[in-house]
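FORM 12-B: Structure-to-Sequence Request
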């Protein structure tokens, strides 16, 4: 891996970590008791990989909600015993939207990140 790739990987890791922290910050109830940091890290790695594999699909606004729902369902199916009541749509939505905004600000994507579907409903009022 060359220096530029190392820098990009570092930024992607920071962007994702900050996105997860922000999405989960008000959700301390998200995890069941006694879930190890290792299991959480593996689950977050799974989310990161799925998100990276589908970044370009978020360029199409008509598929954003479906993409978020697909990610939510995939995580809940693969890790049913980590969360108290499953990973909620709003949590995944916040994670995805913030991550895409970081990528956009760093010029890692060339499309405008979608606005949060729920937030956009409220901003019309």
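FORM 12-B RESPONSE
SEQUENCE OUT:
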């Amino acid at each position: 891996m060359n220096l530029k790739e190392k820098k990009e990987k570092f930024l992607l890791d920071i962007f994702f970590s900050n996105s997860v922290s922000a999405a989960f910050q008000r959700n301390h109830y998200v995890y069941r008791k006694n879930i190890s940091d290792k299991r959480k890290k593996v689950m977050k790695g799974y989310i990161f990989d799925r998100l990276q594999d589908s970044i370009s699909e978020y360029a199409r606004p008509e598929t954003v909600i479906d993409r978020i729902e697909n990610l939510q369902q995939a995580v809940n199916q693969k890790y049913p015993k980590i969360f108290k009541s499953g990973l909620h749509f709003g949590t995944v939505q916040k994670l995805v939207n913030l991550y895409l905004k970081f990528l956009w600000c760093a010029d890692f994507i060339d499309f405008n990140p979608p606005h949060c579907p729920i937030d956009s409903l409220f901003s019309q009022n």
